Amino acid sequence: MVAAGCNNPKQKAVNNTQDPIFQSDPNLKKITDQITGSPKDAALYFERGNLLHRMRLDTLAIKDFKIAATIDTTRADYYSAIGDLLFENKDIKGSVEWIQKAIALDPKDVKSHLKIAKLFLYMREYPKAMSEIDDKVLRKDVYNPEAYFLKGMIYKEMKDTARAISNFLTSVQMAPDYRESVIQLGLLYSAKNDPIALKYLDNAYRIDSTDVFPLFAEGVYYQNKNDFENAKEIYRKCITRNAHYVDAFFNMGYVLMQQDSVEKAYRQYDIATKIDPANPTAYYDRGVCSEQMKKIPEAITDYKQAALLDTAYKSPREALSRLKVKL
To answer: What does the pLDDT read at residue 24?
Structure first.
């Protein structure tokens, strides 16, 4: 969870310049030196906060954002940045509070209203989310792609697939490279077994090839159609592009199991345990392979590990019971 704010921003600012982390990166060092020279410049803290966030140092990032907001209380974007970061770190109550402060400073700020709508969506308060979008955003900016994306997500959560697709399509019409909507169209059409899903997923991957999720989703599309050879080819591409994408190993293992390639499936699950050693499913699936290969001691070890990692996970306990072994 993100750290709490500082009580004395001025003193904290001075302390922040001495933190060794700020000397570990040339860009951080440069802006920290600027802060040392101008400790009351809110924009510098905000800039460093954004840099820290990109480096995934969120505890430090939120401290800088709060210092910036304390120094300059007129900037809605400073409050909004705090709300965003709290939301990303699952502090929903704190996030709402800071985004509402941003809206109070600038009631016409479309971005803040979209953020509060996103929070309402997360909390499943769909009427409130829709009101923010329709009354506060689209009345001011009828071409806003994020607004239609969020409406699409609301309808998707409400199981209204037709309206969800309609809004995602509108979002893409407003901004063809709005990746989140492109992905959702791929997923929804995939669920309908419509091959147009592949077009959207390909496009999403083209927009940002550093994220292999759309590629993985293509594999799932083929897997659900029992087209295992195409599925395996796609999962291999995922693994080639991101050797730590554990879901691709899980699904590759599943496909190989369907093809009675138990030893090959075992290797996939074995890799999954190394990539994500706290994942109980990886051990359970590897145990299933071991059991099918008549390697009972190895299977028992994996079933026990899976059960210990997740005490609510029934499958490994049932497997141990079937083998007449106590946990």
So the answer is: 76
